[in-house]
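User: Last request for today: this protein with phosphoenolpyruvate, please.
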Amino acid sequence: MRKFLIAGNWKMNGGAEFTSDLLSAIKTRKAVISEDVDVLVCPTFVSLSMAIDQLHESDILVGAQNMHEAEKGAYTGEVSASMLVEAGCSYVLLGHSERRAYFHEDDALVREKLQTALSHDLAPIVCVGELLVQRKENRHFEVVKSQTLAAFSGLNEEQAVQVVVAYEPVWAIGTGETASPEQAQEMHAFIRTILSEQFGEAARAIRILYGGSMKPTNAHDLLSQPDVDGGLIGGASLDAESFVGIVETAEALSISAGKVDSQLSPEEE
Ligand code: PEP
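Assistant: Here's the final one, the structure of the complex with phosphoenolpyruvate:
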């Protein structure tokens, strides 16, 4: 059974005061997190240490929004995997569509970063997803397939299960547009099929998150899809009530059903 992961991507929002206030508000609303759900926040680099200190007695995990692929060296302005681990991060977002679009990150670079992250036991959350034009041209499966295969290429099964995939249709990010639960499930099942062709049974253990305008009002319908194993949340993660609302939806769904992927009947789990 896969455990839900609810991850907040704070992007370039908030300094020290914002981080402290938002984390306090989350902890006040949600003092205890169910063991059935992993909860992660990804603040900016400069707020990571503070967030880690503030969350040291909490079950909420902290991750980074990016990292450099090299171990160390003359890369002005960059941050390495070992620095993130030393700071206390357990996850790192890689290949977010904003990084692909604004910082020209391509599949080869995302793959290199992913391999560096894994070599430091930092769990990568690799983002894949099509542009609106690609969906309109009916190329969305082809695009997501090639991003997914590129990210996982060269990994063995043991490494693959440590990777989390976030399917984020670019047309749904920060737009208020959401993929319908059926569109999300269709793509998540497709990604799992690709992964099972590469890694066999191990693909059942790989979590696939949905990202794109998830909020408390649509979280139930999205998270109840069999292959949707959590959410990567931008805008709604900046508001404690909304973020906790999504976490509580995941908790309620884990208790009522558990996650069973579409390729399995409940008896096989
Ligand atoms: C994101 O940027 O990863 C994201 C999903 O943003 P939003 O929830 O605001 O669409």
